[in-house]
Amino acid sequence: NISCFGGMEFSPFKLKAGVSEESMFKAADEAVKGLMAKEEGFLGHALLRAADNTYVDVLFATSQERASAICAKWVGNAFCQSYLEKIEESSVRIAFYQRIH
Fold first, then answer.
1. Cβ(12)–Cβ(89) under 8 Å?
2. CA Rg, the chain, in Å?
3. Do 13 and 27 contact (CB within 8 A), yes or no?
4. Rounded distance, CA 84 to CA 71, Å?
5. Degrees (nearest 5) of the Cα angle 92, 35, 86?
6. Environment class of 10 (CB within 10 Å of its CB; exposed 0-12, middle 13-18, buried 19+)
7. 79 Cβ contact list (under 8 Å, min separation 6)
8. Interatomic CA distance for residues 61 and 7, integer angstroms
9. Is residue 88 within 8 Å of residue 16, measured between CB atoms?
10. pLDDT for 50-81, tens place per residue?
């Protein structure tokens, strides 16, 4: 139940030139199904878009520690590789938050 989340990853980013949203959605879904959804403490994942076409990757978990641990597994994971390849690395500002209220 996502309303019970205790921590999250919140990471603004931009797509690489020429990458479509549709291909990003497909790659993100693959990452969720192949890795994230199988991880202890995972509660949900969302992609957000701002008016300036900046995106935000959000992962909800039972704790900030679990969110961080799950995201630490992305690099080098076959299910996450396509998603990560679509993101402009220099634009990423990954951050983890603990729910306090």
1. no
2. 13
3. no
4. 11
5. 35
6. middle
7. 30, 31, 33, 34, 35
8. 5
9. yes
10. 999 999 999 999 999 999 999 999 999 999 99
**Residues 94 and 11 sit within 8 Å (Cβ to Cβ):** yes
Asked if 81 contacts 34 with a C-beta cutoff of 8 angstroms, the reply is no
**Four-residue CA torsion sign, 94, 34, 14, 59:** negative
Residues 16-62 have pLDDT tens digits of 999 999 999 999 999 999 999 999 999 999 999 999 999 999 999 99
* Model pTM above 0.85: yes
Give the pLDDT of residue 2.
80
The beta strand positions in the chain, using DSSP E, are: 7-13, 42-49, 55-61, 96-98
With the CA atoms of 60, 64, 67 and 70 taken in that order, what torsion angle do they form, in degrees rounded to the nearest 10? -160
Position 3 scores a pLDDT of 84
- Length of the chain (residues): 101
